[in-house]
Amino acid sequence: FWAAFCGLPRRSGLIPLFGDPLSRRGGVSSRTIEELYRRVLPTLLNSINQNAIFQQDNAPVHTAYIVRDALNELECEIMEWPPYSPDLNPIENLWPLLKAEILKRYPDLMHLPNTTSTLELLVKAAQEAWDTLDTEIFKHLSETMPHRVADVIKYVGWHTSY
Question: pLDDT of 87-98, one tens digit each?
Answer without folding.
Answer: 678 888 899 999
